[in-house]
Design goal:
This protein is mainly alpha-helical. 45% of the residues lie in helices and 0% in strands. α1 packs across α3 and α1 runs parallel beside α4. The longest helix has 14 residues. The mean pLDDT is 94.
Length: 94
């Protein structure tokens, strides 16, 4: 559903950012996504569709490594802006 005033979660944001990375021509395959995410205490909360996108975001520096992923937490606009900035930097567009 289109909901312009709604919120999105961190895992939903990572999935969208990875789709944008594909449009930019980046190889977004994340081998061993479960192993990458296992270092986070809340990795079991990540939805199956978001495992590879989140792993890619952490491996490529789009998301900074912290102690937890907080996959179902609503993401802030400033966090999305930083993710997009990091994506453009990794694609050498900045």
């Amino acid at each position: 559903k289109f909901n312009p005033n709604g919120t999105i979660t961190r895992q939903e944001a990572a999935t969208m950012v990875v789709r944008a990375a594909k449009v930019l021509g980046q190889n977004t395959a994340a081998a061993n996504a479960d192993r990458t995410l296992s270092r986070f205490s809340d990795s079991a909360k990540v939805a199956s569709y978001a495992k590879e996108p989140l792993a890619y975001c952490y491996n490529s520096g789009i998301l900074e490594v912290e102690k937890t992923i907080q996959p179902t937490k609503s993401i802030l606009r400033c966090e999305i802006a930083q993710m997009l900035y990091n994506l453009l930097g990794s694609a050498k567009l900045l």
